[in-house]
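Input structure tokens:
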């Protein structure tokens, strides 16, 4: 076998391996995209069902308000129920790409609405994070990580330090 044949054979093997790697990467990427799409579809369906449940509750509230002769408020709750139901149906019928395109179109037509929505989502997110932090601090404060609290003779809430000192400057028994 000549040197040229060996080089040609090696190049062919490298090309075949490269094609196999590229095909495997494409297949893996497609599988990941399919799994993500399936997961998104399931989540979207669950959210749509929850909105449907809210719309049903609003309709029951509307009926109750009408029985209580509260026509004006009943009309408002009925309108909100219709809007929520339309949102649920939209989530059930649209795919992610169509929703993205609709959102982009809305942003072009109503930029102030999008900015307001982003602000509201940001405030809700900040509120959520703040309440999560408080909840975590309460769990930790109950002795979860050794930050036990004891009451001394003075009645003050004093943290116990790791060196046996109880603070407050009292060195008595």
């Amino acid at each position: 076998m000549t040197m040229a044949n060996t080089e040609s054979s090696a190049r062919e093997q490298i090309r075949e391996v490269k094609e196999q790697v590229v095909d495997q990467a494409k297949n893996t990427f497609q599988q990941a995209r399919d799994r993500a799409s399936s997961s998104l579809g399931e989540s979207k369906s669950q959210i749509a069902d929850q909105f449907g449940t809210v719309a049903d509750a609003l309709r029951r509230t509307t009926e109750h308000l009408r029985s209580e002769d509260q026509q004006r408020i009943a009309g408002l709750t009925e309108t909100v129920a219709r809007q929520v139901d339309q949102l649920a149906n939209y989530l059930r019928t649209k795919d992610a790409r169509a929703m993205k395109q609709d959102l982009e179109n809305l942003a072009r037509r109503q930029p102030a609405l999008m900015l307001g929505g982003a602000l509201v989502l940001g405030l809700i997110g900040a509120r959520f994070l703040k309440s999560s932090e408080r909840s975590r601090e309460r769990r930790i404060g109950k002795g979860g990580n050794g930050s036990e609290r004891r009451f001394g003779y003075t009645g003050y809430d004093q943290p116990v330090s790791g060196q046996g000192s109880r603070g407050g400057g009292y060195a008595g028994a």
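Residues 162-171 have pLDDT under 50 and may be disordered. The chain has two domains: 1-109, 113-146.
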